[in-house]
Batch of 4 targets.
Target 1
Amino acid sequence: MWMQEELVMSENNQKLTKKELRKFSLRYAITAQASQSYEAMQGIACVYSMGPFFEKWFADDPDLMQKKFQNNLKFFNCQTYFGAAITAAALAIEQDRDPSSLQLAASLKTSLMGPFSGIGDALFNTIPKVVMGAMTAYAAIEGNWITCIIMIAIFTPLITWVRQKLIEIGYYGGAELITSRKDQLNNIRDAVSVLGVIVIGALIPSLVKVTTPLAITIGDASQTIQSILDGILPALLPCIVTAVTYFGLTKVKGMNTVKMVWIMIVATILLSYFGILA
C-alpha cells in the first residue's frame, strides 16, 4: 500500500512535456471565447483544457478529481494569452494532492486575472494590431497587397509562439512552486489570497454604481444621505449591494446567478421608482 501511494505521488509530480502543454494550449484556445456565461466565463475553458490531465492524475480518486473540476469551474476572465498562462500555472499547482493546492490555485487565478488582462490587452490586442494594421492599411492604399499576406504569415506564427512560451513559463513556474518551494506554500497562499481580495475589492466601486438621491431637510438646510454615506466610507452602497449578492449566492439554498440577476433587476427598478436609489 505504501509503495502504491509513493508510485502515484511520483507519477503526479512528473512535469508535463512540451507536447502535452501544446495539447493544453489547443484545448484552451478553442474554448476560451466559446462560452460567455457570466457565471463562469473562461472557467469552462479551464476545465476543458485541464480535464485530460486531471483524469490521468486522479483516476484512482474520483472525489478528489471532482473537487479539482469544481475548483476550476469558477468565474475566470482574462486576456486569452495570459489567461492560458495563468491557468497553466494553476494546473501545475493542482497537480499536487495536498488539499491546500485547491485554495492556492483558485487564489492565484483570482488575483492575477485582473492585472494581466490589462497588460495582455495592451501587448497582444491593442499595440500589435494597431501598428501592424496601420502599416498594412497604408500599404494597401498604395496598392501593395503583399503586405497583408506578410502580416498574416509573420504575425500569426509569432503570436502563437509567444502564447506557447507564456504557457510553458506559467506551468513550469507553478511546478517549481509546489516542489522546490513547497515549504513556502502557506505564506504564498496567504499573500495571493490577500492580493485576490484587494483586486476584487478595488473592482467594486469601479463596476457597481449605486447611489441614493434621498436628503434630510431641516428648514433651509439640506443634507444628502449620499454625502453622509460617503463620509462614513466611500462607495458604501456598492459594498453593501456586493455583500448582499455574495450572501445570497453562497448562503441561500437554491440560489444561482440567473435568479440573483433577476432579483437585482426587479429590486433596482422598484427602488428607483420610489426614489430610494438614483
Target 2
Amino acid sequence: MSHRGYPKGEDSLESAAFTQSGVQGAGGVPGVLGPASFYRDGGARAIMRAANFPDELLPFLQMEGLAAMDAVCRHECDSLVELGCYDGRALEVARAAGVRYLGVDVNPGAIDSLNRRIGDEGLGDRARAVLGDALHCQEWSSEVTGERPLHLLPFNLVGNFTEPEKVLAGVGGLGGLALISVFNEEPWTTEVRRAYYTACGIGIVEEVPGPYGGVLFRGDQGFRSQSFSSRGVADLLSATGAATVRERTHRLGRCITVRLT
C-alpha cells in the first residue's frame, strides 16, 4: 500500500527489509534486523538515555507528560497503560493522578528494572510492568485494569513501525482512549532528530521521505523512525477509525488524544 503520494516502492522496501518483530524480513530474507530487535537487543539504552536528549527535545517531552495528565483527569480514566515504557516515565503521571499503571516494553532488562523500582517505591499494589509488543496487544491485554484506560503511545513510538495503523487498530481493541505523541515534518524537527540519533551512536543509513508525509530515518542495528505531517496524522487516524478528542502542539510535534474504535 502506498500513502500520501509517495512512490509505491517506498512501502515495498519497508515491508521487505524492515520488520517490526525480528531478524527476518518478509519473504524469508534472513539476517535483517527490525525495529523491535533494535529496542529489545540494547538500542533502547542509548535512545532513552536522557544525557543524549538535545535541549530542544525536553519541552516536547514535558508537553507529552502534561497532555497525559490532562487526558487522565479530563476523561476520568482509571488506569494508564504506557506502551514502549522503558524506564516508566509515565509512572509519575499515574501516581500523581491516583490511577493504576501498566508499563509494556519489548526490552526484558527495562521491564525488570522498572518492576524493581515499582517494588522499591511501594507501588506494587497499583503498578506493574510486563514484557510485550505493541503490535501484539492480545498477548498482554489481560493485564490491563479498569474500565476507562488511557493508552499512552509516547515519544513518537508509532513512528518506529512500518504500519502504525496496525498498532492503533490493536490498541483500539482494548477500549478506552489513546494519547499519541509524534514528531512533525518540519526541517528544524528533522535537524533535532538527526542530532539526537547521532548522539545516541546510531549510524544513519538512510534519510528519505516517509509514507506519512514526514521524514524516515533508517539506521544500523534495525533502527527505524518516521515523522508525520498534519495530513499524514489525519490519514493514519482515518485508517483506524479514530476520532480526535483533543490535540496539543509543539514546534517539534503534537500529542493527540483519540477515541479508538
Target 3
Amino acid sequence: MALHRDLTDAQWSSVEALFIAFRARKDPRGRPTRNTRMVLNGVLWILASGSAWAALPTRYPDYRTCHRRFKVWFDSGVLQRAMHDLYGETGDAMCEAVAARMHRPHPGEPAASAGTPASGRWRDRARPMSRAAD
C-alpha cells in the first residue's frame, strides 16, 4: 500500500455501505458517535504507518475510539472486505499481516488480563523503593 492518504469521496462511497450496520446504537445515551469515515481513515493510517495506536495524529478521532472500532470491524470481517474493495490484493496482504501480528489466545486458553501474573506484565511493574533505616 502506498503512503497513506485519507479516502477520497469515490473511495468512501464504494465502502460506506459496509459500515452502516455499525453506526446504529441501541442505547442513545453516552458520547455522540464519531464520523465513521474519519475513524476508518485513522485505522488506515495506523495500518500504513505501523505506528502505535497512541501515536495517531490529532486530525483523527481519539486513538481509543479508532482501536475499539478496528477490533470490531476486524473481528466481523468488515475491515478485510473494505481493504479488498479499496486496495485489492495489497489490502488482502495487509490484513493477513495484521492478523499475524495480533495476539489471539488459543481456543480453550483463558485470556490473561493486565496486571495478572499470567500476562507477564505483573512481574515488570515498578516496585516501591524500600527506604534505608536512618
Target 4
Amino acid sequence: MKTFSVLAALAATVLASPTPTEELVARASSTSLTPITVKGNGSSRFYIRGVDWQPGGSSQLVDPMADTTTCTRDIAEFVKLGLNTVRVYTVDNTANHDACMQLLANAGIYLVLDVNTPLYSLNRATPAPSYNTVYLTNIFATIDAFANYTNTLAFFSGNEVINDDTTTSAAPYVKAVTRDMRQYIGSRGYRSIPVGYSAADVDSNRVEMAEYMNCGTDDQRSDFFAFNDYSWCDPSSFTTSGWDQKVKNFTGYGIPIFLSEYGCNTNVRKFEEVASLYSTTMTGVYSGGLVYEYSEEGSHYGLVTITGNTVTEGPDFTSLQTALAGTPNPTGDGGYSSTGSASTCPPQSSTWNVTNDALPAIPSGAAALMSTGAAGKGFGLTGAGSQNAGGTSTGTASAGSGSVTAVATSTSTAKKSGASGQSLDVRPMIVSGVVLIFSFVGAALL
C-alpha cells in the first residue's frame, strides 16, 4: 500500500510466517477451494493473478470483507478481470468473515492478508518497544480468525516496514514477527499457511532484505518473499524496465517470490508487463503478482471508481482485463527451481544497518500463547494501540527457539477442512495434493 495512514508513517506493518492457527471458536472453513501450500513436486503451477483490495484506502480504514454487500459487489468485478487472488491490507479481527470468504471461494479466489493495522504494528523508527506482547497477541488473533478458511493463501507479517537505508535496523524485528507467526500457527495445529514479508521498492537494499528473510535456521526463515515494484512504466520492456536484472538477481533464491504490488502509473497504463510476468522469462523465478490497486483512492492507481454502491470501471480496468485474458500461464512447471536452500545473511554496509544475525526473543507473554492456545479476542480497528504497551523482548533468541515443539491441546478439531496436511517445503506452492505449484518458490533475488 503506497500509504497506510498517518500513524503508519512510523508504524510500519509486520508479518509472520503463519502455520494453521485457531481461536475465536471454530470459524467456518471454506471448503470449496483446496488449500495452497509451499511444496515442490508437481507438473502445473499456481500463479498469483490478483489485485490489492482496500476500498476507502489509508484515510478511511474499513474492512471490506466484513460487509457482504461490499464483497458481492467487488467480487463480481474480480471475476470479470479473471483473478484468482486478492490482497487485503487491513481487517477487523473481531468481525465475522465467513460470508465473504465463502463468496471468494465460490469465485475461485484466494486471500493474501496483511495482519497489521495502523494501531497494532511495528514502529520502524523505534522497533524495540513496539515488538511486545499486546502487538503479537493481536496479530495472533487475526491468524485465528482466518486460519480455518481454506482459501486463505498466505499472511504478510509486514508491508514496507523498511522503506529506506536508515530504517534497515528494524529488519530483525520484522523477521522475529514472521518467526513468531509461523511458530504460533504450528503450535495451534493449523494447516501450514505460508507467512512472508512485503518489501518496499527500494533498490539499495531489496536484495539484502530478501537474503535476510531467507537466512539462518529453518525456524527463522520466511515461507516466501514479496516486494512492491513500480519500475515497469509503459511503454517499456523486459530490459528497459530492469526486470531482466530482477530475474537474474533472484535466480536460485531458496523460497517463493512474487510481486505484492505492481502497476506504475507515470504514463497511461496498458499493463504490458503482464505478458512478461507470466512468461517463462520470469516464471522460473516469480509466481505472478498483485496489481495496485482495485479502487481509486486519490492516488490515480484505481482500476475502478466507487460511488456509494456503484462501481465504474476505468480505462485501467479494461487494460488489465485485456492483458490478463491475453496472457495464459505457461504450461508445465514454468521452469521453477525444485530445490531451495537458505541464503547467506547479508553483511552490514552503508545501506544495510544490521550488525549480526541475532533476533530478539519473543516476549514472554506472547511465548506463553504457544502452549496455552488461543490468543483471545483481538482489538479490531480500534483500541489503545500497542506501540508502547510494554511487555517487550528482554533478550536475544537462541537459534531454533522458534521451532514448534508441541501443539496446544485446546486446538479446535475444525482446523483443516479440505487440507492435505502436507508439510511446508522451501519450494513452489502447490494446491495441496493437486500438484498446482506456486512459483512462489525457488527463484532468484531481485
